[in-house]
Amino acid sequence: MEKKRKVFAYITQGDENNRQLLVFEYKGEPEVGLQVPGGTIGEDELLIDALYREVKEETGLQRDVLEFVGKIHKYNYYPPNKDKAYERNIFHFEYTGENIEAFEHTIKSEGRDNGLVVQYRWEPIENLPKLAAEQDEAIELLEY
């Protein structure tokens, strides 16, 4: 069985009564589903380096608007009907930048998602829609 290592970022904003999660959809491809920033850890790449790289590539957000809260979960995900396993490492950031409701970003990476346009928005954690591929697995572990 093939195994890949992944990082995911739960980027939140707001106080405990109005906590929101940054999520995205691929522009023109809503069937792919709602997701959080993340991706594959490169060979010989440190976990923390992969995390910051993926967040920058997928959101365009700079480090200075993200307060690192910590790692909240690690587990293996087995996608249905595939002979693969994904080690998922989920981290929490608090967004500290200027207020933005929604934004578009063109991914700049060396991966297959290079050039794709993603549409970001904030969703209330209390009424969070289902995320694609069980990316919401660790939502209940967020501390705020």
Compose a concise summary of this entry.
The protein is mainly beta and 144 residues long.
What is the 3D form?
globular
Pattern of helices and strands: EEEHEEEE
Structural class: mainly beta
Give the low-pLDDT segments: none
On the 0 to 100 scale, the average pLDDT is 95
Distance between the termini: 37 Å
Largest sheet: 7 strands, mixed
Helices, by number, come to 1
Beta-strand content bin: 35-45%
Helical fraction: under 10%
Count of DSSP E strands? 7
- Report the radius of gyration as a whole number of Å: 14 Å
Commentary on this structure:
There is one protein chain. The protein is globular. The chain has one helix at residues 47-59, and strands at residues 2-13, 20-26, 38-40, 66-77, 84-95, 102-106, 117-124. Strand 4 (66-77) and strand 5 (84-95) form a beta hairpin. Strands 1, 2, 3, 4, 5, 6 and 7 form a seven-stranded mixed sheet that branches. With 144 residues, the protein is mainly beta. The chain has one helix and seven strands.
Provide tags for this entry:
single chain, 144 residues, mainly beta, 7-stranded mixed sheet, 1 helix, globular
Task: Produce the secondary structure layout.
Blueprint: E1 2-13, E2 20-26, E3 38-40, H1 47-59, E4 66-77, E5 84-95, E6 102-106, E7 117-124
Parallel strand pairs: 1-5
Antiparallel strand pairs: 1-2, 1-3, 2-7, 4-5, 6-7
